[in-house]
UniProtKB/TrEMBL annotation:
<dbReference type="GO" id="GO:0047545">
    <property type="term" value="F:(S)-2-hydroxyglutarate dehydrogenase activity"/>
</dbReference>
<feature type="domain" description="ACT">
    <location>
        <begin position="561"/>
        <end position="630"/>
    </location>
</feature>
<keyword id="KW-0718">Serine biosynthesis</keyword>
<protein>
    <recommendedName>
        <fullName>D-3-phosphoglycerate dehydrogenase</fullName>
        <ecNumber>1.1.1.399</ecNumber>
        <ecNumber>1.1.1.95</ecNumber>
    </recommendedName>
</protein>
<dbReference type="GO" id="GO:0051287">
    <property type="term" value="F:NAD binding"/>
</dbReference>
<dbReference type="InterPro" id="IPR054480">
    <property type="entry name" value="AHAS_small-like_ACT"/>
</dbReference>
<keyword id="KW-0560">Oxidoreductase</keyword>
<dbReference type="InterPro" id="IPR029753">
    <property type="entry name" value="D-isomer_DH_CS"/>
</dbReference>
<dbReference type="InterPro" id="IPR002912">
    <property type="entry name" value="ACT_dom"/>
</dbReference>
<dbReference type="Pfam" id="PF22629">
    <property type="entry name" value="ACT_AHAS_ss"/>
</dbReference>
<comment type="function">
    <text>Catalyzes the reversible oxidation of 3-phospho-D-glycerate to 3-phosphonooxypyruvate, the first step of the phosphorylated L-serine biosynthesis pathway. Also catalyzes the reversible oxidation of 2-hydroxyglutarate to 2-oxoglutarate.</text>
</comment>
<dbReference type="InterPro" id="IPR036412">
    <property type="entry name" value="HAD-like_sf"/>
</dbReference>
<dbReference type="InterPro" id="IPR045865">
    <property type="entry name" value="ACT-like_dom_sf"/>
</dbReference>
<dbReference type="InterPro" id="IPR006139">
    <property type="entry name" value="D-isomer_2_OHA_DH_cat_dom"/>
</dbReference>
<keyword id="KW-0028">Amino-acid biosynthesis</keyword>
<dbReference type="InterPro" id="IPR029752">
    <property type="entry name" value="D-isomer_DH_CS1"/>
</dbReference>
<dbReference type="GO" id="GO:0006564">
    <property type="term" value="P:L-serine biosynthetic process"/>
</dbReference>
Length: 630
């Protein structure tokens, strides 16, 4: 017969996100300034009591004296506390139902407000042990019932002892008085609960730090609302990604580690072992070697457009999904390109540099309007085509070349070869993607084909242009003005020196890969990419991923979802269904999509089944990854 388990749960900052007396303070002190002052003092006294610095009775006495609360305030307090139950408690109602008889709330708070709140999750009122207020004739709260054992030193332990509970006792709480129960040898295990507050002195003493009730249930093999505790999902965020992304991951309950710059291959290999989600921009190279070290990696987010820095083929073979932000910074790049075209046409770099040296060079020589000039766009994708529209609206004549048939927007004219475009354009601007075949797409021969005095821009990828040839053509005067935002090697952070043959060349605008670096774009990206990754973790949805077959999935309701990624070989779907049939499992919905490398099958099933089935799914030959969601 399994040993009976009893669960002792603290109330303030554990069952609820807040300390009830803090909330009471905001209700019963009307003057804002006095309220703030009192609140600060109350919080200080709470911490002193919770960390074991002063006796809890003293902390309680001093807080109540400051509050000057009345019985009439309690209804509003209870109303507000109803909305403050800890998230992981709320979604684990099934645990509270199943262990109704074995769950106890033992708190140094007050029964008057604890009972109505914990009853919401089905805790029995007779299993709540807490203090009670004392009142005067006008209903003012004067103190607390001194005969209650909870007012004594080690009161919680004494209370539990008096219950004579057979079996194992587990305590979950955030305060020193919760640890004391275990310290006095009355409980078997103490779990420091950190979903709402983290107290080092309490965490140090815990058998296990539990950032949520899900984690507690997971480590104790108890029924949980989630298939996997979110706090076990580690996110590594590199390259100065916008804070909004970090916040979104934290809100989900993930553990987030942030590094401001990029990491070299060996460093990344070291740090990626326990990482489930990797977030990068354009600098970090995610190589096959990195991926070999990433046994837990589920998803990579490229917080940019380009994904050429990621070994996509290996990611796919390993069942690692990749997302990017294909449109979030398009407008920013287009605006920079346009601004640079205007500045270069007027020779503003030279003029500005000279004036900084005190040289007044007021002349129109070589300065041109962009109206009526021929703009040649190489790569007519999201950026190229948007630039085409804006450039036309400024009166430019637009030509474009793309290796794929593209619909010309407005009056833009298609060129059928790169040579044709190079020969016709007054300004050449590069907006191709970073595929390896595009290395040195523009070199000596291509510069040769351009007009004398051409303006040249590269805001796509560094390796697309042969820099030696570019330098020679700027020095010779063939290129009259040039703007470069991307380089074959880019510093990994703002501390590293930028070395390039382009430094110091005339009428050459150099920018540190900031085409997409506007606050608007970075914020958009930081919203878009995490939302895709979180959706993939929570539902299996792969819509708009770079390398997975794209599946948009219905919400999971009263079902478990089996996610299976496998090599794209014949017969896997049949094998999955054979396993399910052998276990007599009812399929509620099934979705399959494949690409050249992998198949992606999602199966929603009834929730009661023999859990050994999931092991059998993993053992199907050619399985890459398999997980269950609920
Ligand atoms: N500087 C920055 O900060 C910044 C910001 C965003 C994007 N980018 C880069 O800009 C480039 C374009 O981005 P996008 O969103 O428009 O990409 P996109 O994929 O929408 O468009 C790229 C286009 O280039 C075409 N193409 C590829 N190779 C070609 C070739 N050899 N000749 C002609 N056409 C070719 C493709 O067919 C496609 O139409 C990418 O390299 C991206 O990484 C840079
Ligand atoms: O922000 C970055 O690092 C890259 C920006 C840009 O090159 C992109 O691919 O979106």
């Amino acid at each position: 017969m399994p040993t009976q388990k009893h669960f002792i749960i603290d109330f303030d900052s554990t069952f609820t996100k807040v300390e009830a007396l803090d909330v009471l303070c905001t209700i019963c002190i009307p003057d804002p300034e006095q309220r703030q002052q009192t609140l600060r003092e109350i919080q200080r006294l709470t911490d002193l009591g919770m960390e074991g610095e002063i006796p809890l009775t003293e902390s309680l006495e001093r807080r109540l004296a400051l509050l000057k609360a009345n019985r009439s305030h309690l209804a509003e307090l209870i109303r507000q506390l109803h909305g403050q139950v800890s998230e992981s408690f709320k979604h684990n109602k099934a645990f509270f139902d199943r262990f109704r008889d074995d769950i106890y709330i033992i708190s140094n708070g007050f029964k008057e407000f604890i009972v109505p709140i914990v009853q919401e999750l089905g805790v029995k009122p007779e299993n709540v042990f807490a203090n009670s207020f004392t009142y005067d004739a006008d209903g003012n709260i004067t103190g607390f019932d001194r005969d209650n054992v909870l007012t004594q030193n080690q009161g919680k332990g004494k209370q539990i002892q008096s219950l004579n509970l057979p079996g194992e006792i587990y305590v979950i709480g955030d305060g020193y008085t919760d640890y004391e129960i275990k310290g006095a040898g009355i409980a078997d295990k103490f779990y420091a609960f950190t979903e709402n507050v983290e107290r080092e002195s309490v965490m140090d003493k815990a058998d296990h730090v539990t950032p949520s009730l899900d984690e507690f249930l997971y480590v104790n093999n108890l029924p949980s609302a989630l298939s996997y505790p979110k706090n076990r999902i580690k996110v590594l965020v590199l390259e100065g990604i916008h804070d909004k992304a970090i916040q979104l991951f934290k809100n989900e309950g993930y553990q987030v580690e942030v590094v401001s710059g990029a990491l070299e291959e060996d460093e990344l290999c070291e740090r990626i072992h326990n990482v489930s989600i990797l977030c990068i921009r354009s600098k970090t190279q995610v190589t096959a070697k990195v991926l070999e070290n990433a046994s837990r990696l589920m998803a990579i987010g490229a917080f940019c457009i380009g994904t050429n820095q990621i070994d996509l083929a290996t990611c796919t073979e390993r069942g690692i999904i990749v997302f990017n932000a294909p449109y979030s910074n398009t407008r920013s790049v287009v605006e920079l390109a346009l601004g640079e075209i205007l500045l270069l046409s007027r020779g503003i770099v030279e003029k500005s540099n000279k004036l900084h040296q005190g040289i007044w060079d007021k002349s129109a020589a070589g300065a041109r309007e962009i109206r009526g000039k021929k703009l040649g766009i190489i790569g007519y994708g999201s950026i190229g085509s948007q630039l085409s529209v804006l450039a036309e609206s400024l009166g430019m004549e637009v030509y474009f070349y793309d290796i794929v048939d593209k619909l010309a927007l407005g009056n833009a004219k298609v060129c059928y070869s790169l040579s044709e475009l190079l020969a016709i354009s007054d300004i050449v601007t590069l907006h191709v993607d970073g595929r390896t075949e595009n290395k040195h797409l523009i070199g000596a021969q291509e510069f040769e084909k351009m007009k004398l005095g051409v303006l040249f821009l590269n805001l796509s990828r560094g390796h697309v242009v042969d820099l030696e040839a570019l330098t020679a053509n700027i020095q010779s005067g063939k290129i009259k003005g040039c703007a470069v935002d991307v380089f074959p090697y880019e510093p990994k952070n703002n501390e590293e020196l930028f070395q390039s043959e382009l430094r110091g060349l005339p009428n050459t605008l150099l920018t540190p890969h900031i085409g997409g670096s506007t606050e608007e774009a970075q914020e958009n990206i930081a919203q878009y990419v995490p939302s895709k990754m979180i959706d993939y973790i929570n539902t299996g949805g792969s819509y708009n991923s770079v390398n997975f077959p794209n599946l948009q999935l219905p919400e999971l309701r009263n079902a478990h979802r089996l996610i299976h990624v496998h090599r794209n070989v014949p017969g896997i779907l049949a094998k999955i269904n054979n396993v399910l049939a052998a276990h007599n499992i009812n399929i509620l919905g099934q979705y399959l999509k494949t690409n050249e490398t992998i198949g992606y099958v999602i199966t929603d099933v009834d929730t009661s089944y023999d859990r050994t089935m999931t092991r059998e799914l993993k053992q199907i030959p050619d399985t890459i990854k398999s997980r269950t969601l609920y």
